[in-house]
Write a structure and sequence with these properties.
Helix content is 44%, strand content 11%. It contains ten helices and five strands; from the N terminus they run H-E-H-E-H-E-H-E-H-E-H-H-H-H-H. It has a five-stranded parallel beta sheet, with helices on one face. Strand 1, helix 2 and strand 2 form a beta-alpha-beta unit. Helix 5 crosses helix 7. It is globular.
């Protein structure tokens, strides 16, 4: 969907008849190997779709479901909200839908109201595009909101998107001249973010653990960060509303 069209009159969607058999072949191999869940990344669903693109989405996923009725398909959307494409995403014959609740938290309520009874919702709560620790209490509040609406058996907890956008492991950064201990305490790289996803699951499943060392320490660190004179500026810079073309000359 994200491929570029350079030749006049060429429509990339016309390639779907050639591409789909390749995807089906790959899925057949994964199915034979015992795969239970298959994730398709669909950031394009966060963009404006033509009527033809909408038809292609419906046709492709109907074909996949027909060929592999027992495979559990998860569609992952990120980098933005689904907006007018939410009904389309919820109509597809898949088992789970992932939402980026960092970039578009306001889409959750509408998704919860419209979610089919046989679909699971993946909550993208740990930011996959920055290096800061998660606000665990804020994330837990969102999980509880979803739980009250659809139940915990239909909830997944996830990063907002792939963690390829962040460094690998904070523990490997030992240069104190580059990483002041105070600043490092606010950070979470990919390895730490995976730990945050796991910790959120534990804290939600076992509310009595809210007073555990990890939870209380993380909250104290975030509280201290909020009081730091530069923290508000850092937060604003990480959420600049201007498009990249306008930001680039500033940097």
């Amino acid at each position: 969907m994200l491929g570029k069209e350079k030749e006049p009159g060429f429509d990339r969607l016309d390639l779907i008849d050639q591409l789909l058999p390749v995807y089906l072949e790959i899925l057949a191999g994964l199915d034979a190997a015992g795969a239970e869940w298959i994730q398709f990344d669909e950031p394009f669903l966060s963009m404006d779709l033509s009527p033809k693109a909408r038809e292609v989405y419906s046709w492709v996923y109907a074909k996949i479901r027909k060929e592999f009725p027992l495979l559990k398909i998860l569609i992952a959307t990120y980098f933005g909200g689904l907006r007018e494409n939410l009904p389309l995403a919820l109509s597809l014959p898949v088992c789970a839908l992932h939402l980026d609740l960092i970039r578009c938290p306001e889409q959750l309520e509408e998704a919860l109201d419209q979610l089919p009874e046989d679909m699971t919702l993946s909550l993208g709560l740990v930011d996959g595009r920055n290096i800061w620790k998660n606000d665990l209490q804020h994330s837990l509040n969102i999980i509880h909101q979803a739980n009250q609406k659809i139940g915990d058996d239909r909830i997944m907890i996830s990063p907002s998107c792939s963690l390829l956008h962040v460094p690998h492991d904070l523990e490997a950064e030992n240069n104190e001249q580059q990483f002041l201990s105070e600043i490092k305490a606010w950070m979470a790289f990919a390895r730490q973010k995976i730990g945050e996803v796991s910790l959120l699951k534990q804290l939600f499943s076992h509310p009595e653990n809210h007073r555990t060392c990890k939870f209380s320490v993380k909250n104290k660190i975030l509280s201290a960060a909020d009081r730091h004179p530069n923290w508000s500026k850092i937060r604003k810079l990480s959420k600049r509303p201007m498009p990249f073309g306008m930001r680039m000359p500033i940097g």
